[in-house]
Each structure stands twice: as structure tokens, then as C-alpha cells.
Specification:
Blueprint lengths: L2 H13 L8 H13 L10 E3 L4 E3 L1 H5 L6 H13 L12 H11 L7
Antiparallel strand pairs: 1-2
């Protein structure tokens, strides 16, 4: 895992969201909500689709070659399935962790 993926995994662990491709929509939403409270757990651009009422990554939707969230999720899942976990021992700063823990206590739905 690279540093970007470690930050993503660490943040999602705090939120209690398993990193699996099947959870991609929930992960998108979590990254979006975290970003809204000032916690940057992934540099992918995540936007809110008011029509579909869901978060999405335009880079993933467009299948661009620049950084996208789906690739990170897939790569982390593959590493975890191989028994590799480079995120062990890493934490977010105290303020970020506290903000995420508060989100974990609330539903992540955005309206």
C-alpha cells in the first residue's frame, strides 16, 4: 500500500467500513462526508450527485488515468486478501480521528 491507500484504509477502519469493491458506493460517500468535515482520507475528487442522491468520483466514472478512488479500493482489497496490511501501526492525527469518530456515531447519509 502507498501512503494514499494507507490514509484511506486508516480512515475507513475508524468509520467501520470494510474495504471491498462491493462497498464502493458507501466508501465514496464516506470519503465525501469526511472531506466535508475537513478530513482528507483520499485525494480523489468526490462530488455529490443531487439527482441520484449519492457521492461519486468523476475520475472513476470517466475512467481517467489519473488517480481515482476505485483503483485504491481494488488494490487495497487485493493486498488484504493476500494477507498484506501495510497500514498496521499508522494512525491519523488526533483531530482528524476525532472528527471521523463523531461521523461514525452518526449515519453518513447526505441530503
Amino acid at each position: 500500500m502507498n501512503r494514499i491507500q494507507i490514509a484511506l484504509k486508516t480512515g475507513l477502519d475508524i468509520l467501520g467500513i470494510p474495504i471491498r469493491v462491493e462497498n464502493y458506493k458507501q466508501i465514496c460517500e464516506a470519503v465525501y462526508v469526511a472531506e466535508q468535515v475537513g478530513v482528507h482520507i483520499n485525494p480523489s475528487r468526490i462530488e455529490w450527485d443531487k439527482v441520484r442522491k449519492m457521492a461519486y468520483s468523476p475520475k472513476t466514472e470517466e475512467r481517467c488515468f489519473s488517480h481515482n478512488l476505485f483503483d485504491d479500493v481494488r488494490e487495497i482489497q487485493e493486498e488484504l486478501e493476500k494477507g498484506l496490511n501495510d497500514s498496521s501501526g499508522y494512525t491519523l492525527d488526533n483531530a482528524s480521528e476525532e472528527k471521523l469518530r463523531k461521523l461514525y456515531q452518526k449515519p453518513l447519509r447526505v441530503s
